[in-house]
Design brief:
It is a single chain. Helix content is about 60%, strand content about 0%. The chain has about 350 residues and is mostly helical. The protein has 12 helices and no strands. Helix 1 runs parallel beside helix 10, helix 1 crosses helix 11 and helix 3 runs antiparallel to helix 4. Keywords: Acyltransferase, Membrane, Transferase, Transmembrane, Transmembrane helix. GO terms for molecular function: acyltransferase activity, transferring groups other than amino-acyl groups.
Length: about 350
Amino acid sequence: MSSGKQQSRDYLFDNYKVLLIALVVMGHFIELSYRNNDFLYTVKWLIVSFHMPAFIFISGYFSKRDLPLKTLIQKLLIPYLVYELLYYALYTFIIEKPTELYLLYPKFSLWYIQALFFWRLLTPVIRRIPGYMILSVIAGLLVGCSDMPDNLLSIPRTLVFFPFFLAGTRFDRSLLTRFRTRKNQWWSGIFIVSFVLFLILEPGHKALSPKIFYGRYNYDYLGQTALDGILCRLFCYAIGFAMTFAIALLISEKRLRCSFAGSRTMAVYLFHGLTYSFLKGSSNILSGIDTITGSILLLGFCILLTAIFSLSPFTHFTNMVSGLTLPGKRKQVPKTDDFKVPKRRFLPGNLLPQNI
């Protein structure tokens, strides 16, 4: 590499996304068995408390550049439709699970792609409103009082997680650099360990469901009054933001052997969901794990799946889908997935490009 060529990736975010996508896989695969032992129960609470807030925050960070509607349709809406068809085919012809092609009700993890489309579409308008961050939090709190269908157009989760996306779009990377001192890293570690100990030792929170972090369900479904639900969701917001930043202070900024997977999270996101849906619909293996040994093996299996679905054949498929164009004049569009950082030259200090 010539001395004049600038670094084209920020490996801190690549490494962070590798951690988060592995946690996404784990969070789904332990869904059916986390109540079977205290170890998985604590792991489940820990994962859901921050993994989607952090992922959405990073997605917002990479979404600083406004994109035209046609590009959003190509990069998000068309892949969403293709992946919905894949899930429909899996449910109907392989695991023979009764279903319909409910495009307004995303299947499994596809809600995120749908929500990302709306976030990217609405953010340029929302940011013109004074106090939009506070208003987005209020919307996320109030939607829990609604009795709308929890999966219709992913509206509840889109509103609940919108503050994390908006915060990401306004985040200044230099803030992490300034705060990444040894002292602050120690405090971050202490905070994370303290939260884990809270989950292990504090019995009161076990009366609640980890679903308080899902953003999908209203307060009545969660067995809460409106006031209790709002206060609980405020706590979830505080934990989500605090954990996101605390872990960011500890993530390595160096290129690691796994860093490449940080640009391939869409493939992992899609194919792990198909795999989970197949195993869930065709056997009881995921619901029968109740020992510590079995739990550790399951988590190891999740890491293995993350590595496998990061390989080129799977990424090639998602790149191909994101490259599909609308009918009409063809325009050459660089191949990328929703989380991939495109290679480009940088000016000093501009280490993180903007992507879809």
